[in-house]
Amino acid sequence: MKKHDSLQDLGRFSEPALLILISLADGAKHGYAMTQDIERISGQKLGPGTLYGAITRLEDAKWIEPLPAEDRRRPYKLTSAGTRVLKARLETMRAMTKAAQARLADA
Amino acid sequence: MRSDRVARALLRLYPRAWRERYGEEILGLIDETGLSCRSAVNVVAGAVAQRARALVAWRTREPDPAVTIQVFASLTARDVLIEWPTFCALFAGTVVGFNWLGVPLPLWAWWPQAITMYFVVRSDFVGPVTTPLRRVGIGYYFALEAMALALAAFFSARLLVAIGLPEPTTDTFVLVPLAVFVPLATRVGYCFMRSNRPDSQWPGASSSEVRLWKLVGIAVIAAASLVDPEMKLVWMMTISIFLFRPLMNHLSRPSLERRREAIARLRKARVTP
């Protein structure tokens, strides 16, 4: 499997993957808790196929790792590599937001 | 309960390795959120994306030379060395007999070819062999597939005439088998090879489905041979395959053992796509 360096490498799953990383930033969660949390913070409801498509890719990239399953629920937690990727992405977004706001203020 | 059945059915669209890893989790999630039309479409779209990804991973994976050699060796010992000379001898016999002696080789002379073809097609080399040898193997496999399709076209055209339909034109001669036999042969072929292809990306087939296809195949051949006496040839080919199978399995027991071990290693080392 190809090694990924940034969230953009995940193609159309990069946005759901970012939301999952943000959701896991305050602790481990299983699939259902993630969808609830993501809906709360972003207003987006991730479908099961999208959620597990992104989880598969994040796990392959070793940015999240599974914890022991509880019945049919398996929680995932952020790894240190995942935290680094999330911080880098948020930094890029902060710079983009700052630039965009400055341009809007000038307009 | 119904949505659970639908969810399980949709899940079968995903690659087997993925289902084994994430299947119960996604079912648990659907159980909690409910299965709407939108989420069903989302599951299907996810399956398509996962299959595409698995296919890319399968094509670009690193081969294990030890496994490759052993799997190919089992094929070589049992199938190619029997199949290829048989084919060449029959082909040469047909050409020499027809062109120089004026005696066409009787059709039944192709029995051994049909029998050995069956053993090659049911072998597992398409999946695991991932070196230049694999290209040879896959090329050979597709050549056999093409021959099988040509035979299917020939016999289906005969069948159409035998049941009183007008003689097929060139177009129908090609299109009928393409439309009917390609999807059918692909599915049936997969059913028979599924246990030998641990890294297959196709949806699984239950043993009852395999039994069903066997019965359908026997029924079709029996019906065809009743309608067209010449189709008895196909019937006899099928019987021959089943008669020869224990003998072939006995002769190739050591290579079968090697292959089983190689497949077990492949299963253990399988990468979750």
Task: Describe this structure as you would to a colleague.
The complex is a heterodimer of chains A (107) and B (273). Chain A is globular, with a radius of gyration of 15 Å. Chain A has a two-stranded antiparallel sheet. Chain A has four helices and two strands, in the order H-H-H-E-E-H. Chain A has helices at 14-24, 31-42, 48-60, 80-106, and strands at residues 64-66, 76-78. Chain A is mainly alpha-helical. In chain A, 59% of the residues lie in helices and 6% in strands. Chain A has a single domain, classed as Arc Repressor Mutant, subunit A, CATH 1.10.10. The model of chain A has no long low-confidence stretch (mean pLDDT 90). Chain B has two domains: 2-60; 65-268, no CATH class. The relative contact order of chain B is 0.12. Chain B is mostly helical and 273 residues long. Mean pLDDT of chain B is 61; it is low at 67-78, 122-131 and 190-205. At the A-B interface, helix 2 and helix 3 of A face helix 2 and helix 3 of B.
Give a brief description.
Chain A is 59% helix and 6% strand.
Q: What is the secondary structure topology, with strand pairs?
A:
The complex is a heterodimer of chains A (107) and B (273).
Chain A: H1 14-24, H2 31-42, H3 48-60, E1 64-66, E2 76-78, H4 80-106
Antiparallel strand pairs in A: 1-2
Chain B: H1 2-11, H2 16-33, H3 37-60, H4 65-101, H5 111-121, H6 132-162, H7 170-193, H8 207-227, H9 232-251, H10 253-268
